[in-house]
Each structure stands twice: as C-alpha cells, then as structure tokens.
Design brief:
It contains 15 helices and five strands. By secondary structure, the protein is mainly alpha-helical. It has a single domain, classed as P-loop containing nucleotide triphosphate hydrolases (Rossmann fold). The longest helix has 34 residues. It is elongated. InterPro entries: P-loop_NTPase (IPR027417), Sulfotransfer_4 (IPR040632). This is NAD dependent epimerase/dehydratase. Pfam families: Sulfotransfer_4.
C-alpha cells in the first residue's frame, strides 16, 4: 500500500522543521475507505498531538492532524481550497449542505479519527457530516494557559504585528512554508468571522459552540492530564499498559517556527547572492568570459 510522498526532507531536518519526531509517522494510505469515527474539536495547543498518538495506540488510526498538511502537499492544497470556498460561502458553515458533507468525506477519506486543525475549526460541518461519531473536546487548565501556549507558538500565523510581518517575509522564499501559511490564513479569516477578533475569548466561545452542537452522550470533555481512564471509557476500549503519551511541548514547536524562519532567511540570502552574481556578470562581460574559460580549463573541455 503506497503512501503519498512526504514533504519532510533533509533541509527540513537540518533546519529543525521536521515534524516527524514530535508527531510520529503518518499512517494514511491512499487505498483506505475509512471515515471519521472519533473527532477532536478542541483547539490547537490543548494536547491534540498527545491525543493523536493516544488514538493511534488505541487502534483508531490513521488519525488526521495539522501535521498532515505539512506531510502531504496535494492534501494541503485541497484542504486550503476547501477552506477558502467555505469562507466565500459562510452560509454553508452554519447549515452544511449535502455537497459540503460529500466534499468533506472525500477530503478526509482514509482517516478514522482527527485532532487539531483544520477539522477542529469546522464544528458545524463535522457534526453534520459525521452524526454517529464520538467527539472529544480537549481542554487546558485555564483560558490564560491556552492563550499563552497558543499565541506564543502557532499564534504567529494569526498575529498582525511585527512578528507576523517578519515571519511571512522570511518564509515567503520557501514554497512549502508559504503555502502552509496561506492555508492557515483561511482558518484565521474564519475565526475572525465567527469570534470578531483573535484573542483569549476564543477559547470559551469555541468550547461553548462545541457543547451546543454535539448531541448529548457523544461528547467527552477531556484534559490530557487525566490520562487513559476517561478516554478509554468513552471509547469503550481497554486501558493500555503503557504510559499515556506526552508530545509536542511548547519549546519544541517554538523551535520549529524558528527553524522555518532560519531556512527562509538562508534561502533569501541564496537568491540575493545569485541575483547579485548574475548582475555583476551582465555588466562585466569580460568577467563572465573569464569564468567560462576557467570552467572549461578545470574540466578539460575545449570549444
């Protein structure tokens, strides 16, 4: 069973933006007809990476997670296109049509569960499309704890200040990172439409939105500090003998974003250096001829 090619590579590892260590390997396969059975609607930075691994360990994989957008370029483009379409048709988010449901089932075919963005930001669509699923609302201890963790890490996509300007300028030299950020902006537009602004208030408003829409008996409100017990009881499975996973701490994700910016800066430096060299050779044709002659002598070629 062939997996879609991952976008993680040597450069990603060298600059510290490889996500595989924190998130585990993708279990998705193109020939699977699986559909969501467990859906996480908790916002990012509420233990979604640990929950992703926990669901895999409990047999509910493959689990979709924001990192899949990083790994699967074709999938990333389809998700971004769909989120853009939803932003242009907001009525479809309030009362999802059969067309929306069909597109969602196609887009996420092959996954049995989901955690994190973008699915956690499509609450009405998830509830309407998967009415028999079990839903998990992952929580932090306080609104303040969530906001601090979220804003200091993934919040760089949602900020409007200097930090955001510098980040976008640097990563715009790398196609993969630029397109990832484009997709995240579609989520930002949706959050602004639904909550009016980006701030700590989103935490409670989003969570209440989930409580209002998910049918009684199908929702687990859960803090990863509770461990296996409540999660396994909700899913109807035995508690594993292994410790509950604890992944993707704040320092790690901050390092990822720093690595992205370093990679962008190095790429820009390469482009600027290459352009400068080309301009110099264009105005100094004798230097260009000398360079060609040197290259020919070095390789032993003659013209």
């Amino acid at each position: 069973m062939a997996k879609e090619v991952s976008s993680d590579g040597r450069l990603a590892k060298f600059f510290g933006i490889d996500s595989s260590k924190a998130h585990g390997d993708s279990q998705w396969t193109a020939d699977s007809d699986a559909q969501f059975e467990v859906i996480g609607l908790g916002l990012g930075r509420t233990g979604t990476t640990s929950l992703r691994e926990a669901l895999n360990m409990l047999g509910f994989g493959p689990v979709h997670h924001g990192v899949e957008i990083y790994r699967r370029p074709d999938h990333r483009e389809r998700v971004t296109e769909f989120m853009h379409w939803l932003n242009e048709h907001p009525q479809e988010t309030r009362k999802p049509t059969d067309e929306v449901k069909k597109r969602l089932r196609t887009l996420f075919k092959g996954y049995r569960s989901t955690m994190d963005m973008p699915c956690c930001d499509m609450v009405p669509e998830m509830v309407a499309t998967y009415p028999n699923a079990k839903f998990i609302l992952s929580l932090r201890d306080t609104e303040e704890a969530w906001w601090k963790s979220w804003f200091e890490s993934v919040g760089i996509h949602f900020d409007t200040g200097l930090r955001r300007y510098i980040y976008r300028t640097l990563i715009s030299s790398v196609h993969l990172l630029r397109r990832m950020d484009d997709g995240t902006q579609e989520i930002r537009f949706r959050l602004l439409r639904e909550y009016g602004s980006i701030g700590p208030h989103i935490y409670h408003e989003h969570n209440q939105h989930v409580r209002d829409l998910v049918p009684k008996g199908q929702l687990l409100e859960y803090n990863v500090k509770e461990g296996w017990g409540p999660l396994c009881a909700f899913l109807g499975v035995d508690v594993p003998d292994t410790p509950f996973p604890n992944l993707n701490e704040g320092a790690g994700i901050k390092a990822v974003y720093l690595g992205q910016q370093i990679l962008g800066a190095v790429t820009w430096a390469f482009y600027v250096g290459l352009t400068g060299a080309a301009c110099y050779l264009a105005v100094k044709p004798q230097a260009a001829r000398s360079l060609v002659d040197w290259g020919l002598r070095s390789t032993g070629l003659r013209i």
